[in-house]
């Protein structure tokens, strides 16, 4: 942790969640491992600065709540805000798939492991589509393996900050915008995303395809 981090070791959020260590961060926020003083379990705290121009945790919380009860989604524990930061607390998971792939001897998964992971990721994508949202940032680091013995072979979908609702209140598919702007991660984004076109459910699936290609260490179709 550095002095610039939003939270420091030992900080207690809302008199309940005690910060243990920082475990990740990026352009949109920071992620910490914490300890729940009520349930005595370790949790994940995701925070963003209240002064940050682009706020994404509101979308994260909305989608996470809609997905509760789905097999490949973290359990929502709580959320809130103060004058310094917004936060969401959820079930803590293990290493993400990008870390796990890089740790393999050849930097790749076996074909059988890739197929098992792919089936679970596909089910996770189906779950978010079933509640009317696109993920729009499907990539290995946004999926992790459960950290407990009974969840150690289960894949969990993470990070819904770039999600977008693709259906109307009546369940109809929303009309596409003329120019949508780029969303996602360059390496895994679909052709539509790179062309700043409106994305649909199939674009999440293209990103899954690029992931699976990389998992078995085949040359990425869009990288020379």
Automatic annotation (TrEMBL):
GO MF annotations, alphabetized: ATP binding; protein serine/threonine kinase activity
Binding site for ATP: 46
GO cellular component, one term: microtubule cytoskeleton
Stored InterPro entries: CK1_Ser-Thr_kinase, Kinase-like_dom_sf, Prot_kinase_dom, Protein_kinase_ATP_BS, TTBK_Asator-like_STKc
Keywords for the protein's UniProt record, in alphabetical order: ATP-binding, Kinase, Nucleotide-binding, Serine/threonine-protein kinase, Transferase
Residue ranges constituting the Protein kinase domain according to the UniProt record: 17-224
Database matches in PROSITE patterns: PROTEIN_KINASE_ATP, PROTEIN_KINASE_DOM
UniProt record similarity statement: Belongs to the protein kinase superfamily. CK1 Ser/Thr protein kinase family.
Protein name: Tau-tubulin kinase homolog Asator-like
Organism (species): Diaphorina citri
Lineage, top ranks: Eukaryota, Metazoa, Ecdysozoa, Arthropoda, Hexapoda
Gene that produces this protein: LOC113473889
